[in-house]
Amino acid sequence: MRSIELGNIEIHALADGLLRLPTSFFPGLDAERHSDAIAPDGKVHVPTGAYLVRGGGRTILVDAGFGPREIGFAEGGQSDGVTGSGGGLPVALAEAGVRPADIDTLVLTHLHADHVGWVAPHGVPYFPNAEVVYGEADWAELVETSGRHDWTRISLEAVRATGQLRPLHGDVELAPGITARAAPGHTPGHYVLDLVSEGRRAVLLGDVLHTPAQLADPGIRSASDTDPSLTHRTRQRWLQEVEGTDTVVAPAHFPGLQFFRITADRVAEPVSAVPAG
């Protein structure tokens, strides 16, 4: 488990599972130029998980992993070539000393299946005391259009039935120094979490970035981008905001769920600690 301290805030990266995606999932990814992004099996390995934020009396979870399930090969082979599984988040939470009931806010950067897995597995809310917040624009795009047996729909409707689901509009301060900021493109209601404490800053970027290869070539996109053009503009805006600064960033799917600083020439430098301001 990777962790940093940001002033009086602790941030822990919690692993849930791993998806193995074909290179075709990332249009524009040059396999020769970015060979380090491709695993020996010829796929791009994408970790799934969550970020735990503790400070100021708050216990906030950002995203909820892929959940206790697997994507395997269907009979006759799986046409899209995606495989993977989740299920590790409960152990990661326990290692961080947190029970599901301790989470007071669950921030969903967006409503793709690999971010909502532990919201309400099989229709039972996993974080009983958490208010679940998400970008309102994602509902029509990703929930209303899904089938009635879809994991995301079942999870979100289960929480809505408890009265603990809250849509977000625009930038919203969730707690002092903790702001959900709209970053649409990958999905219409995509958000990032902006954290500031004692003069130090970190941004949990969700799927604004998917792979370190996008730092050198931000034109690489994800096949799951709802609006590729807006996604590209949003990615560029956030890179321009953080590059060459002391801001720590944590994209949702970078290898090892590491924390980074982005240099002025867009190299990701791993961060293991954030000194006091």
Structural write-up:
With 277 residues, the chain is of the alpha+beta class. It has one domain: Ribonuclease Z/Hydroxyacylglutathione hydrolase-like (Metallo-beta-lactamase, Chain A). Helix content is 16%, strand content 31%. It contains five helices and 16 strands. Strands 1, 2, 3, 4, 5, 6, 7, 8 and 9 form a nine-stranded mixed beta sheet that branches. The protein has a five-stranded mixed beta sheet with strand order 10-11-12-13-14, with no helix packed on it. A hairpin with a 2-residue loop joins strand 3 and strand 4. 45% of the residues are buried. About 2% of the residues have low confidence.
Mean pLDDT: 93
Q: Give the strand tally.
A: 16
Low-confidence stretches: 74-79
Binned, the helix content reads: 10-25%
CATH class: Alpha Beta
Instruction: Please identify which CATH superfamily we are dealing with.
Output: Ribonuclease Z/Hydroxyacylglutathione hydrolase-like
User: H/E element string?
Assistant: EEEEEEHEEHHEEEEEHHEEE
Key features of this structure:
277 residues; alpha+beta; 9-stranded mixed β-sheet; 5-stranded mixed β-sheet; 5 helices
SSE diagram, text form:
Layout: E1 2-6, E2 9-22, E3 43-55, E4 58-62, E5 70-71, E6 83-85, H1 89-95, E7 105-107, E8 131-135, H2 137-143, H3 151-162, E9 165-168, E10 172-175, E11 178-182, E12 191-197, E13 200-206, H4 213-216, H5 228-242, E14 248-251, E15 260-262, E16 268-270
